């Protein structure tokens, strides 16, 4: 069943077209990866789904409901969660306080259980629970950004560049955690990622974006095997 549908979406920054008629679909229980070069419009698509910036043309449908005109606040209450590019944790708050912020739209009675789940998924966060977010390493901040998003018990988790700037071992831990959430909890994940090898290896399906347009789509394996994808995104990129 289709959970998220992006239909013919055009997004602009002023007069500059960032997305030019984008069609993307994410089915319930899938991991879908969107790959492309820096500046292709990947992050813009993710932000447009979350209502900022707004789509100027086209529709965005979540679980059968048109969310194109909704505010980010309203969208969050539908249990769509985003871990944005650059992490954007609250640096002066402790790890625990960051996780409490993520739980605002969830049921309070489930907070302790959800906290235990996050500490099991990312044991490093349990060790750092009382530290301020700004004192964590880059990898720990990325784990915190994902855990904060998961505290809302999302039906759709949107991850923007989770591997950016991280050491290979930390990248593996984060991608293993995403796979675990999908396999064990059937979490639906929409992943924007420059690391095409990791993203397509993880994904059930993938899309390639070039200059604000979707140019290719297929299963993760199909895209990994396409010579043009290998040449553009994978040569020397298996890290």
Description:
With 239 residues, the chain is an alpha/beta fold. Helices cover 37% and strands 27% of the residues. It has helices at residues 42-49, 72-76, 95-102, 111-121, 123-127, 138-150, 168-185, 196-202, 220-225, 227-234, and strands at 2-13, 16-27, 31-35, 57-62, 65-66, 80-83, 156-160, 188-192, 205-210, 213-219. A hairpin with a 2-residue loop joins strand 4 (57-62) and strand 5 (65-66). Helix 3 (95-102) packs parallel to helix 6 (138-150). InterPro entries: AAA+_ATPase, ABC_branched_ATPase_LivF/BraG, ABC_transporter-like_ATP-bd, ABC_transporter-like_CS, BCAA_Transport_ATP-bd_LivF, P-loop_NTPase.
Task: Quickly describe the structure.
InterPro entries: AAA+_ATPase (IPR003593), ABC_branched_ATPase_LivF/BraG (IPR030660), ABC_transporter-like_ATP-bd (IPR003439), ABC_transporter-like_CS (IPR017871), BCAA_Transport_ATP-bd_LivF (IPR052156), P-loop_NTPase (IPR027417). The chain is an alpha/beta fold and 239 residues long.
Output the helix-strand order.
Answer: EEEHEEHEHHHHEHEHEEHH
End-to-end Cα distance: 33 Å
The protein's oligomeric status is single chain
Q: Report helical residue fraction.
A: 25-40%
Number of domains: 2
The count of DSSP E runs of length 2 or more, i.e. the number of strands, is 10
As a whole number of angstroms, the C-alpha radius of gyration is 17 Å
CATH architecture of the largest domain: 3-Layer(aba) Sandwich
Q: What name does CATH use for the topology of the largest domain? A: Rossmann fold
Question: Shape from CA axes?
Answer: globular
Number of distinct helices: 10
The CATH homologous superfamily of the largest domain is named: P-loop containing nucleotide triphosphate hydrolases
User: What share of the residues does DSSP label as strand, in percent?
Assistant: 25-35%
GO molecular function: ATP binding; ATP hydrolysis activity; branched-chain amino acid transmembrane transporter activity
Keywords: Amino-acid transport, ATP-binding, Nucleotide-binding, Transport
Family: Belongs to the ABC transporter superfamily.
Protein name: High-affinity branched-chain amino acid transport ATP-binding protein LivF
């Amino acid at each position: 069943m289709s959970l998220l549908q992006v239909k013919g979406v055009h997004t602009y920054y002023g007069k500059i077209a960032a997305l030019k008629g984008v069609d993307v679909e994410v089915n319930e229980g899938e991991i879908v990866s969107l790959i492309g070069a820096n500046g292709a419009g990947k992050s813009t698509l993710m932000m447009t789904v979350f209502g900022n910036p707004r789509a100027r043309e086209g529709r965005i449908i979540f679980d059968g409901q048109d969310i194109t005109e909704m505010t980010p606040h309203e969208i969050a209450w539908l249990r769509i969660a985003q871990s944005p590019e650059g992490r954007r944790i609250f640096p002066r708050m402790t790890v625990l306080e960051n996780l409490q912020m993520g739980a605002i739209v969830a049921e309070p009675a489930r907070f302790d259980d959800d906290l235990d789940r996050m500490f099991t998924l990312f044991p490093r966060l349990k060790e750092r629970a009382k530290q301020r977010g700004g004192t964590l390493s880059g990898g720990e901040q990325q784990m915190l950004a994902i855990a904060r998003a998961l505290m809302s018990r999302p039906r759709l988790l949107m991850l923007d560049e989770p591997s950016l700037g991280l050491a290979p071992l930390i990248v593996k831990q984060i991608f293993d955690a995403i796979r675990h959430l999908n396999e064990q909890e059937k979490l639906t994940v929409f992943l924007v990622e420059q690391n095409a090898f990791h993203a397509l290896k993880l994904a059930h399906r993938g899309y390639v974006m070039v200059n604000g347009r979707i140019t290719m789509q297929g299963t993760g394996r199909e895209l990994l095997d396409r010579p043009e994808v290998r040449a553009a995104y994978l040569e020397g990129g298996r890290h």
